[in-house]
Amino acid sequence: MKTMISMKQALVSMLVVFALPTMANTPVSVALDWTPNTNHVGLYVAQSKGWFEEAGLDVDILPYTDTSSGTLVAAGIADFGVLSAIGFYSQRATGANSTAVMAIVQHETGRLVFNGEREDIQRPADLNGKIYAGFGSAWENGLISTMIKNDGGKGEFDTVTLGTSAYEALANGRVDFTLEVNTWEGVNSMLLNRPRRAFTYADYGVPDQHTTFLGGNSTWLKNNPETARAFVQAAQRGYAFAANQPKEAAQILIDQTQGMLSNPELIHASMKAIVAGGFFQDAGEPVGLIDGDMFTNMTRFLFEAGILRDENASLLTKMPNVSTWYTNQYLSIKVD
What we know:
Blueprint: H1 2-19, E1 26-31, H2 41-49, H3 51-54, E2 57-62, H4 69-74, E3 80-84, H5 85-93, E4 98-105, E5 110-115, E6 131-134, H6 138-150, E7 158-161, H7 166-171, E8 177-181, H8 182-191, E9 196-199, E10 212-217, H9 218-223, H10 225-244, H11 246-256, H12 264-276, H13 292-304
Parallel strand pairs: 1-2, 1-3, 6-7, 6-8
Antiparallel strand pairs: 3-10, 4-10, 5-8, 5-9
Helix pairs in contact: 2-10, 2-11, 8-12, 10-11, 11-12
Pathway: Cofactor biosynthesis; thiamine diphosphate biosynthesis
Pfam family, one: NMT1
Domain SsuA/THI5-like: 37-249
């Protein structure tokens, strides 16, 4: 009889356990701004280490598509996105429903580059009348003309829009100069033994900036503050790990992207350059902190250069109040 009762109790207990609802993690989506690269490493580290799951989240890292991450976030198709700074400023000026919640890259990684063997180019003013291989944005014209003019030149140059093929055109001499991301194309040029020389934007009157943000849909952030905080702090933890363990973080990125990254040497070299340059973290500050002055200064530069437009595609006539464009409220002040 005791055995029968024990078996009954065990069966009832099992039924109760199976009847209990399982607590599913909260789904969160994040869109990439390009194919996976070292700017995304913190997301993949957090995913691999289980930190998103630990925070009660089921995070879907969406693959890059022809629709920009900024558009996906503003439309509410993705909750979060990795956003290029210039793209974010431009979209936000039109009234896009997005907010920057973390600075992934703390400083300007871009630079103006030319063939290292060119003796006729010694300063930005020497670029007058030369051929620039571009990517089709208004930002490029404002940036380059400012650098040339601040060096005493007229700021006049010819542009051919080539996109990523600009680097091959530069290598074979079809164009005179272009722009590159130092921590990616710049690193790759060294691996390919294509020496380049460069001019740094900030040396010629262009303000420093956070070149990449993690941004969220503004309405979603308002309606889901605790989920937003959990996601941002887990991502922040991933980037903090990458800043301190670049070799392991690079390998995690390679492993997590399952063969999408065909050049492991570039990934490791890029991570090394990012950490050596202090691009993920400023000394004495938490990873991801958005600098309000830096944010405002770049917005002002874009406004004064006639780059920012409103929802009707008309140039802004008044410097926007950017205090609502970003927030540090979801960040952890201390990251382990």
